[in-house]
Write the structure tokens for this entry.
Amino acid sequence: MTVANTESSRSQLFENVAGTRSGKRIEFFDYHSMADFEIADAEQYCEYPDNIPGAVDLHAFHDGTCKVQTLYADSENDGVSLGVYTFPPNFSFPRHWHDCDQIVFVLEGTVSVGNRQLRPGEGYYTRAGATYAFKTGPRGVRFMEFRPVTNFRTVFVEDNPDRWARTDLTTPADA
């Protein structure tokens, strides 16, 4: 397993961002006024099967694929986090797992997880360690994600380089 982040096995993605814990007993956030930001160099926050870094340009794979709107993150105590993630149309995210539970709630677009296609108002719960992949629909997807921690691992298990193709950048043969 190749670990990109050598200082810590947990992602520091939410460190020092707006919406992080301030020590107040009640903290407010506004989905409508908080900006999205593109996750730059996302490959540094993930772990990969040993053969993938040599076979796949991971920077090109991740580039421009995910925007996040951090609504709340307790990076100081590694407490709960709530974020909104946006992925482009027809994007396939390879099989992976996280070291914490998560709840995902679709806000816009569609996403397929396993044999289920989820629309706005639908979602899913994933236990820590559960392996899954997803593919966004023709208009992409925007979903809200709750986790019991702020810092978490993303560990890819997909070791077939062909499944790392940027499906959002290709045109279907019958189009």
